[in-house]
Specification:
InterPro entries: RNA_pol_sigma-70-like, RNA_pol_sigma-70_dom, RNA_pol_sigma70_r2, RNA_pol_sigma70_r4_t2, RNA_pol_sigma_r2, RNA_pol_sigma_r3/r4-like, WH-like_DNA-bd_sf. By secondary structure, this protein is an all-alpha fold. The chain has helices at residues 3-29, 32-47, 57-77, 79-92, 96-114, 118-128, 134-141, 145-170. The protein is globular.
Length: 171
């Protein structure tokens, strides 16, 4: 399957299942904004899966979403201590090789984000970097929450297409 076909297939799956998965995740985590983040993470995980191995895409999406909601619940229970420990480990394990990889990855991500159209880029940065919620972003930018969701979906599609392209270059 070509990269373009994979991107279309992923987009179709997203359009077909996003509403039911969002409702499912919202029930699981009891927070619509967290559910939206987990929904996006679900499709990112699907993107990094070999599509030939997936028999029932809908069931597989639900499995990924369930696992992410479980991971979220676990992280929420031990958040304070584990975040500090993870940061300490990251700082103490920094090597020149890791620094080089992190630098090139950061540069790639900056180019990828810079490639987003202006309102989409701004929404993405407010959501992912500033950790703002959909309501806060909508109020700040003077747009609806639905528009915030559309911009984040657009950013996800852009990132998915770029990841598929990058993946095809390394294969």
């Amino acid at each position: 399957m070509s990269d373009e076909q994979q991107a279309r297939s992923l987009s179709l799956l997203y359009q077909r299942h996003r509403n039911e998965l969002l409702a499912f995740l919202t029930r699981k985590v009891r927070c619509r904004e967290t559910a939206r983040d987990l929904l996006q993470d679900t499709f990112v995980r699907l993107l990094h899966t070999e599509h030939g191995e997936v028999g029932n895409a809908r069931a597989f999406l639900y499995r990924i979403a369930t696992n992410l909601s479980i991971d979220h619940a676990r992280r929420s229970q031990v958040r304070g201590v584990s975040d500090e420990q993870a940061l300490d480990e990251l700082l103490t394990e920094a090597t020149p090789e890791r620094s080089a990889v992190a630098g090139s990855t950061l540069a790639y991500l900056e180019r990828l984000i810079d490639g987003l159209p202006s309102p989409t880029r701004e929404v993405f940065l407010l959501a992912r970097v500033d950790q703002m919620g959909y309501k806060e972003i909508a109020a700040r930018l003077g747009i609806s929450e639905r528009a915030v969701e559309r911009h984040l979906n657009k950013a996800l599609s852009h990132c998915a297409a770029a990841a598929l392209y990058a993946r095809s270059k390394t294969d």
